[in-house]
Amino acid sequence: MATAMNEENNRRARDEALSKAAALSVEPTTMVGYASRGVVAVLGDAAARNAVAMMPATLTPHLVVNDDDSAHGTSCTRIRNREVSLNGYLGSFRLMLTDPASDEVEAIEADLVLDLNASPLLDMPLTPPGYFTGDASGSELADTIGALADMTGSFEKPKFFDYNPSICAHGRSGKTACTRCIDACPAEAISSLGEMIEVEPHLCQGGGACATACPSGAIRYLYPTADDTLTMLRTLLRAYRDAGGEDPLIVFHARETTLPETFPANVLPVGVEELASVGLEVWLSALAYGAGAVLLLSDDNLPQRVAAEVDDQLATAVDILSGMGYPPGVINRVDANGLTRTTGAVMPPLQAAAYAGASSKRQTAFMAIEALYDQALSVLANPPMDRVALSASAQFGTASIDEKSCTLCQSCDSACPGKA
Fold this sequence. Notes:
Elements lengths: L3 H19 L8 E6 L2 E5 L2 H9 L5 E6 L9 E4 L4 E5 L5 E6 L6 E6 L1 E4 L15 E2 L5 H13 L2 E6 L2 E3 L7 E2 L2 E2 L3 H5 L5 E4 L2 E4 L9 H5 L5 E3 L4 H17 L6 E6 L12 E6 L7 H9 L4 E5 L6 H21 L6 E4 L1 H4 L21 H19 L31 H5 L5
Parallel strand pairs: 2-3, 2-8, 3-4, 8-9, 17-18, 17-19, 19-20
Antiparallel strand pairs: 1-10, 5-6, 6-7, 11-16, 12-13, 14-15
Helix pairs in contact: 1-6, 7-10
């Protein structure tokens, strides 16, 4: 158990390390722009009319209702048994009303959407910027209208991703192979374009699950880049050790996640845009750089499909670490209570690796695994395994080819989505 002096030394070392890490610059990214004039499509019949009556003059409402009641002074479109669909984002929403009998479509354009229907039109975990739902009455509605009023004018956000179609394994020769990024994205910002995918930057909200899920590295997280993240981790852990800190544990957390008021002084918090924006290659690198454990702090706001992808990668990391003889629990997803732990699985003392980040996700992962493997040969009682079986969902693997049966027809070469 840490003594009071240990805690004080670790706390001082943590403060110094966090200060040095915060001073590092990150590679800038381009910006994605939005422009809103305050035109609001309001859905929900009586609830919609009530909301319109509460709106300030800076908003221009357009009612979209089923009933025939009118709203004085407000433009209004009646659905009249037509099918309703919605796409778009802040400043560029498009509401389509389709007559199933004639296939005629009426389109309504809006900058914002207030959907007060009992069953909202959009139900993805992360809805587009500018799309609001909520309670149709009371203070919650007033707060929602206030948020709508704040979303007029011009806005910018970072572009969080980069896509390299030349190494994308989505499809080839008419065959769809990989859809991991599409399946993982909670904003549903990614769609298929045959042999490639397309990411709508206005819908992307920086969740990072796509980059974590991508087996080839075709989608990279840009803000910060993986290289910047690894530089920060190396700096953080080195500064902590140089300041006399002991037994460092790294905890990754979304910046909007509230940390516990108190937690052990050897826990070094690393805020990221979203928890899934760092994946297996970063976790393993943190261990190779000298972290005793890597904790992933999650809360109830983590979308289920994102949590599934994180847990999938955790399973692969556990298999790799176990195969080398390290405690599997040194990478773990925890809640706030788990962050306050004072005991748990930790790595044996290792010589900190010095490699820098690589532009290739797979190369970074392999450098981390190689560094940990080499250390295992010298610090563990039992030698690491040469090979380890991974689950079918793992991002790494090998293809077994019977060379005696190969006719050199090259059909595999032309059809392989990953161009392996």
